Structures are given as structure tokens and as C-alpha cells.
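Q: Could you write out the predicted structure for this multi-component system? I'm mainly interested in how the pieces pack against one another.
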Amino acid sequence: MIARLMRLSLLLPLFALLSGCWDRIELNDLLLVTALAFDQEKGQVVTTVQFLLPRSQTAVGGTGGGSPAAKQTSVRAGKGYNVADALSKLQRKLPRKLFWGQCKVFIFGEELAKSGIRDELDFLIRHPQPRERSYMFVSRGKAADMLEVYPPLERSSAEVLRELSDMRIGYKVTLQELNMKLKGESRAVALPLVSILQPNKTADPFQTISYIHGTAIFHKDRKVGDLSEKVSQGLLWLLNEVNEFTVTFPIGDSNRLVSISPIKAKVKLIPYIKGDQWTMTVRVEAQGDMVENDSNWNPTSEKLLDQMDRAFEKEVKRYIDLAANDIQHRLKTDVIGFGTAYHRKYPKHWKQVEDRWDEQFQQIKVVTKVHARILRTGNVSNPGGLPEEEIKQK
Amino acid sequence: MLANQKISALQMALLLYSTVLATGFMVLPSFAALHASNDYWMTGLLAGSTGVIAIGLAVSLHTHFPRQTVIEYGRRIVGKAAGTVIGLVYAMILMHLSGVILREYAEFVKGNFLFNTPGLFIMISMIGLSACAVRGGVEVIARGTMLFTPLFVIPLFILLMLIPDLNPGNMLPVLNHGFRPVLQGSIMPGAWVSEMFLMNFLLPSLANPEQGRRWGFISLTAIVLSMTYINFITLFLLNADAGDKMFPVLVAFRYISVGGFFENLESLLLAMWVIGSFVKLTVFLYSAVVAFHQSAGLSEHRYVAMPITLVVLLFAYWDMPSLSRLSGFLSKMVTFEVLVCMIVIPLFLYTVAKLRGQLKEDKGGLDG
Amino acid sequence: MTSNANPSSAQLLKQELQKLGKQPVGAELEHSSEQLRQLYAGCSDVVFRPFLIGGQTNAFLLYIDGLSDAEAIEKSIIAPLMQVQMQPSAAEGLPKLVSQTITVSSTKPVTTFAQVMEAVANGMPVLLRDQEAGGVAFGLPQWEKRTIEEPGAESGIRGPREGFTETLRVNTSMLRRIIKSPLLKLEMMTIGEYTQTNVAIAYIKGLADETLIEETRARLSRIRIDGILESGNIEELIEDSPWSPFPQMMNTERPDVVAAALLEGRAAILIEGTPFVLVAPITFFSLLQTPEDYYQRFMVSTFIRWLRYMFLLMSLLLPSLYVAVLTYHQEMVPGSLLVSMATAREPVPFPALIEALIMEITFEALREAGIRLPKQVGAAVSIVGALVIGQAAVQAGLVSAPMVIVVAITGIASFMMPRYIAGIAVRLMRFPLIMLAGTFGLLGIMLGIIAIVLHMCSIRSLGVPYLSTLATFKGRELKDVLIRGPLWMMDERPRLTGDSDAIRQAPGQMPGPQHGGE
């Protein structure tokens, strides 16, 4: 057996020759795709890829390289009846093979989002190349425009978007989550909305970034509306995605501001059914450190701190109520996951309302209960730069 | 061949562990979730029951007919002619199942990693290695498995890196659709676990046969725990969507991301898959070879290894037209074949032996 | 070369020699001296010294110049015999003469020509006397030999500094100095038609399995060959799986390594003319251990062992993994690294597979050149290697910088193998793996690993499975494989074959204050 193996191994060099075909592909023949954008144009899909230009990298040698803001990416688009068709047409215009391994950003154009993203989603989830962990975005305007800009920092605008989502201030939805949410109880999902930042006065018009600003609300696979930046923050509270937020709120009669950051919060959705009345209690445990105090209150005073805590709570509650109200009554789409909560706790009741969940959703009474505390007051106790006598100690 | 090569009970346990789990952890969550929805985590536990039956049958039959395989004591129980028929049925089914395993292996590799490589090459390279191992004998297989099992098990723990993405709430609501779908979802995992009966081909080679039962059950416990672990991970990550994925574990591995550096670990799964499939295929091929050469009454198993390998390759190459057919085939035909082979025939033999009183008369040596 | 029907002159000569060898040395000195002179015709180094014993009886002394101590022959054999007064009768013969007049410590009677030839070849002068059959050989061998030096191929920081030499007797004496018990047996045999090389099997009776020693003996005595020049010749003729790249015996220059192996119940084969001693049976893991592992603190040794295992895998797999990842699984590389790799590879004209092969082969060539070249030139080679491979090749765009790093790490890793032969075997395996990686990617590597492991599982060293301990899982012995357990915990010998005395030291010797004096 061994002798045979040895003799067989003489065939190995042959394999090396064979391997010219099959699946081997050199790095030099790959086009490193960083992001994909989908737009709709006259009933057809335009797929735009953003890819890295390997030659302008300054990794090797270290001597070359222009300014760090030099353009390192380029875009190219293909148009077709569906994504696969568009991509195959796009590939004809590219000398290298599209490589999606590091492509982690997919952006849907506004128009496409309004008419439905199901076809695109099917491609992304079925094809073995797109990563399930890619981040999904919706653009204001054309999605391709988001990829045309090149950022002063980071290699590509796609990377900027990814970094922004990863910073935990923003909201991110991965491809897998998107798929699961659209299949889930409420058949709705909220995706981050991106738009282009106004470039600096001295920079050239494309040297800017696309950034997350607001939220797009999808019902089934169609975009049904937007949330403003402020309401989006409330939505994050409801989704228990609060991390490293800064909450700023007025205290006392003077309406002077106090800021708490970073916020750590635990949000629980507690569904309850009594008779016909469906109630959802949103219980919030929030805490954070004081980073700015514009008032004249001394936060080390127990009484004043208590009042500050109350004001903090009020602010959080305001955020949440605003978002819940907007989503429930203006958009009438359960992107918060009330449906899931009810399904898990009241599976029998759920079966009755499953088919008309969107109506039922609007009738749910949302009760917000916030318990918030300021944990630390920072490095000073009394407000900074304020004479002793002007400070309110009690 | 059976007499002079010796393996330990621990080695047998590891062989069985890899045999059941190798392909099991890849396809079972999907099949189970298809029926049982988000309750499919229970299927692993339920499936364990067929394992108990399979081990019980294999061990107790072996106790009464020591150092014999199902082919040999089949003859003694139901007579020479009928026994030979049973033996050939075993040989055929095992060859066929080996072919299915080989095809499954190739399909996964081709569908997710090597899109343009001819499937025949992928299959030949694997079955060639298996054939070499089978020719080397059970000792070589067992020793190899000792080294392969860690390679197969350790990557499973890498899935723990997914913890931040896991949502235990996906378990709820428990048993929303009642217990029936769970039972339905357990049939395939049950068939998989019943492959434990293959231990009857290994028991005669055991250096310490009295430990066979104990290690069989240890192996079964490990299998059930691992299956449940995989089920939980995929359930918490994908919810009932797992039923929609061809290979939920693949998605789980693709989903891992630690610090933006440890990412896209599906290639690791490829490595596991190769190792696992190799062990599984080798055990099946070995059993098929033993079954065939014993029922044909040949003296040396090495001579039949190569022809049988060729037959297996033909089964793998021509039997199934496409992956979707394969999965339909897996859930029906294979489940049936496996259950007949691993539970029904042994149970039949056991009952006949019991009725004919052979179980008492032959009692000796080992403790049932 | 030659057919049986028509034997060649070499065969005729051999047969003649054998025939003569069987003849007894006759009583007629004239005749036997003529026979011997014919035998050694053309051997300029053979000295025939005729003289008269006590001025009466004819006698002559036969020895090889340079192999025997000429001065001692003169002083303690020829001089006393010439002056002797006594003339013993033929019946009492030489033995009496020798016992009364000659001061040489070791003597041995010889009766056949074969014995004469053997004695002379081993540096023992042979005395023949007229009117008496047979003769006496004197133990006066003396030849130029290398002094005991530190072993060149196995250096270490802590441990004995002496290494074996080319002289078998010196080597056996070194072993005997370490293991003084008479249970250390040194069985001699000669192998080789022309070289008549002395070979000794060393083992400790009671510790080494009897069947093992018998098997070794049998395998050695099966050898029919012109000559044995080095232990490698013997190794190749007695190993279990000749079709294997892996060494199934360990060779070492260090007496302490051999002694440790003997104490574990293994056998050693010492061969005249080489400082390398064979040790068998071994497992793959004994090739990955150094004697120093047992002289250093166990935690340090454990750490170093793990380092070694890690780098063993690296030296085997790193280039092929690099090729597989770069040409098949690009998604495994983290984003920013992938970009810099892509940039580095942009000017390289070769596929990664070819690039890896070129670099690996170049590295092997440099290594080999470094060994063969005279020491003075060696430095030049390394400079050229470093400059050409490291700098110029990258700047010329022939290879990419990451590839150079990979090859460099692989090179270092392969030098971490304590046994040169094991390192070479691993290095050899690297090339098929690189090719498999270039053909099937990671799948190919896994198939390669499976093939290698299966092969290693199927080979044995003198009957002991090569991957014993790990692949057969002897739980207790793992503490000398996965880690290097503290000495006071390793109470049992490794079980090789059969059942030998398992306990090697008194249990419970963990030192501590409670065991101290006071």
C-alpha cells in the first residue's frame, strides 16, 4: 500500500499542471469588491460595485504613495433584468474576477427600496459569495452615489460605513438578520439610511463620506417610510441597541443642560394581554456618567442628584414614546419586534391575530417604565468655572 | 483479519462518534428544523433513543456470539442460506450508503468551495484514501481516527465565538405546534444515530470487548450532546430559518467575526468536513468490505476492497442527479435503508435467536 | 551481474577464501606460513616476522602495521620469546610458553585460518610455532583514533559533552561507564563480506523485551552485503517499512541518549567506524525530543516541546497553507492584510504555487550548499542567500515579500526539529503538500494530511506502532508526549512491546520540605 502511495505521489506534479483550470485563482486576477449598490432604472436593476485599486496602495516599500486621501477605489456598474444578469454584464466590463470575500456593505437605492428588495435579497442569500454578515443599508437617492465618494480617512466609503456601524453608536442589520426579520412574525425591518455628507469647503466635491442618518422602515420587502435621526435614536432604545449614547436633557426651571455618557441600558419588552387589551411594557434600566453639567447644581448633593435622575428618566421616556408613537401610528409597521414578543409569550393569542397583525399592532398600548441613574459625576463635583456662591447645593 | 488486528474500546467510541456526527452535524439541523421549526433542538435528544436500541442490539448479540459480526451470527441464527442473503443485503446497503456519503461530501465541496473542479476528482481522491485505509486494516483506521477526532471536534468550539450573536429567546415558544413535528423531525437524526449499530463490525476486533458497551454509550452520549450543542447554536443564531439553509452550520461558521480579524472561517469547516467524511466513509467502506467478504466466504478482505471501492464510486457518481434530489433522497430512501440495516434486521435476528433459545445456550464469557 | 552457471573471478576468490578459512592451521610452519604469505600477497601493510624461540624453534609473528602496537610486540612478545630457555614439549605447547613468558594481558588461541585472519584484521598479532597446530593471538591493537569530542550534530546547553567516536570499543566503554550493571549486554557480530564490520547490539537484560532483541539479532544476521560503512546502511536493511520517508530508527552521537533509551528497554546498535548509534524501537515522538528536555526544569521543557510541535506543523504546512489561502480561500485573509498582499503580489509574474515552489527549492539548495561547503565559504553562501532571496528577488519583482517571510519562517521551523532526519522527512512532505494546495486548496492539504497520518499509523519501528502513545492513547504515557512530566511523576517505563518491568523508580519522590533532613 505504501509503495503504491509513493508511486502515486509521482503523479502530483501532473496535478500542478492540471490546476491551471479549475478553481485556482491568483490574487492578481481578483477584483477586491468593497461594496455593492443596487438601483432601479426603467424597470431594470443597476448593480454598482466599488472595488479597491491595488496599485495605489502604499503598503509595500513605504516610500511611494501620495496624499493619504488619494483615491483608492473605483466604481463600475452593470444593468440587467435582475442582479445575476446585471452582474454578469458587469463582469464583461472588468478584466478581473469579482471577489466578494471582503465585501461587507450592500446598499439599496431609494427607488428600488420602495418597489421591493426581495429579488436582490434572494440573490444575496442564495449565492455562496455574499457574506451573511454583510451590513445592509438604504440610501437617500441613488445608491451608486454613495460609492462614488472617496473618504479622507479609510480606504473606501464602504469601509467608512462599516466602521460607523461597528462603533455601536449606529444601528446595523446584517444580511442574515434582514432575511430573518422579513420572514419573522412582523414581516418588517428597519435599515439604516445613509446619505452623503456635505464635503469640506477645501476638499474636492467627491472627497467626502456617506454616513448613517435616520432609518428606513420596510414592511414586507418594501420601504414604507423614514424615521428622522431623532426618532431613530428612540427606535434604538426600543431595540435594546443602546450603547455609548450621549443623552442630553434640561434640568430645573432654568432649562440648563446636563449630558450623560456613555449610557448603558437594558431594555425589556414585556407583553401582556388582558381581555382585549394588549399592553406592551417597555422597561428600561439606564445608567451612565455625567460628562457635562451646564447648570449650577451640585451633583454630589443627594437631593439634586435625585432630581437629575428624574430628568434623565424623563428624557429617555420622551425618546422612547416619540419613537413608539411614530412607528405605531404613522408608519403602522412593527419594526420593534412586538410581534415576536407576543408570539413567544402568548403563542395561542398570537395565532388569532397572526394574519391581521398590522392592525393589532396599532392598538397595542405602550407603557414605558424607565429607571435611570447617574452613576458617576466625572472628575469634579461642583460645576466648572462657577463661583462658590452661585452653586446650588440643595 | 478480524482476529489479528486489535483496537481499543476508546478507539471504537471515537470511530463511532465521527461516523455519526461527520455528516450529521452538517445536514441534520436543517432537516430537523424543516419539520420541528424552532423546537428542533430536542430532536438530538430524541434521536439518542435509536442509538440506545442500536447499541443494545449490537452488544447483546455480540455477547452471545463473541468475536462474530452480524453476518456470521446471522447465519447461525437463521440458517446458512438466509444468513448469506442477509449478509449480501448488508453489503449492498452499506455500499450504497458509502456511495451516498461520498456524493454528499463532493456536493458540499463543489457547491461551496471548488465550483469548477470536476466532482469525479473530488470523489476519487477521497475514496482512494479510504480504500487505502481499509486495506491497512481496522488498526490503521482506528489509530488515524485518534488523531483526526480532535481536528474534528476542536473547530466545533470555535462556534462559541458566536456568543454575542446568539439569541436564546429563539427557543420560545416551546412546542408551539405540539410534539408531532418534533417526532417527525427526529426521524432522520434517529436514523443517523442508529448507525451506532456499525459497532458490531468493530466489536470482534476489540482488545477489551467487555468495555464495548460502556464506551458505546459514552460515545452515544457525546454524540447526543454534540448534536444538541450544534442545534442550539444554529437555533440561537438562525431561529427557524435553519430549516431553510442547506447547511446551517456553514452559515454559522461564515457568521463568526471576532475583532474583524477572525472572520470567514468557513474554510475551517471544509477541513472538518473532509476529516469527518473521511472517517465516516472509511467506517462504512470497511463495514461493507467485511460484510461482503464474510457473506461471500472469502479469506482475505484486501482483495475485495478495491472492487467494492469501485462499486461505491459508481453509486456515488451515477445514482443521484443533483443536490436537491440528494436531499430528498437523504430524507426518504436513506433513512429507510439505514433503519432497516441498523435496527430492523438486527431486531429480527435478535427475536429469532431469542425464540430459538440460542441466546441462553450460547451464553458464556461475557456478561450481558 | 554474474550468472550462476559461470561464476566470476570475485566469486571464485570468495569461495577459495572461505575454503581456506575453514582449514585448521597445520603443525608444519613452513606450509602454513606459505599459505598465509599467499593469502596476504600484495598487502604491503602486513608484517611477517620470523624468529627463533629460545634460538631453537622456528616461529613467526603476523600483524598489520599500524593496527597493532609495534613497540609492545617487540618488548613483550618477541624479546622474551627469543630469550626463553625453556623448550616446552609439543603436548604442552604454546599455552604454557605464553603463560610463563609473555606479559601481554589478553591472549586468545586461534586454530583456523579464519580466526587468524579475523585476529590480524582486528589488530591482534598472531604467533605461530613450528611443530604445533594452531597459534595464539595477542590483544595489542593500537591505531590512530579520533579523540572524544563534543558531538557536532547534536549540541545542547546542558548535558554531557562527550560524543561517540568511530571506534567501537571506545563507544562501548562510554556506555559501560554510564551503565555499570552487568545486565548491560553488548552482543557482537560482524557484518559485511569484505568490511567484516563489527556491530554490537546493546540492551539491558530484563528491561528490553526478549523477542525484541531476538528480532533485532535475526534481522541483523540476515544482512548479506559487501560492506557496512555507516549505521545508515544497516538502518536501511533492517527497518520495518522501507517505503517510507520517515526514519524508523533514531541515530545519535550521544552516549547519554543511548543510555536513556537502554534504560527505557530499547535496543541500541553500535557500529564500528561511525559515531552514529542506532536506537530502536522508537516512536515519532521520540524524534521530537532532545536529551535536554530531561535535564531542564520540566515546565521549561514542556514549553519548548509545545513550541517544537507548533513549529513542526508550521514547517510542514505553512507554505501550502499560504498557497491555498492565496489562490483558493482569499476570504480567510483579513481585509486590510489582503489588500497589502494583493499589492505586494501585483508585480509578481508567477502563480503563487510556482512562487512557493521556487522559493522552497532555493531555500533547500542553500541549506544543502551550506552543509557541503567548506566552513570558510559557508558564510559567503549565507550572505548571498540573504541578499539574493531576501532583498533582490523582492525588489526585482520576482517574488513577493510575504512569500519570503513564509519561507523564512518555514526554514527556521524545520531547523527546530532536534533530529536532523526527522526534519528532513517533514521537509520532504512539504512539496507534495504545496502541490496539493495548488490543486485543491485547503481540501488538498487535508487530503495530504490524512494520507500522511494514515501512513504514519501504518508503519512500525521494530514492531512498535510509529504513532504509539498518541494514536493508541496510552493515557499515562501522554505525560511524556504532550508535556514533559516532572521526573518524580514518571514512575513507569514506556511500554514498547511485551511486558517488561514497568516500574522504574520508587513512587512518591516528589521533593519537599517534609522529605528533608531535620
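A: Regarding packing and overall arrangement: Chain C touches chain A through 35 residues (CB under 8 Å).
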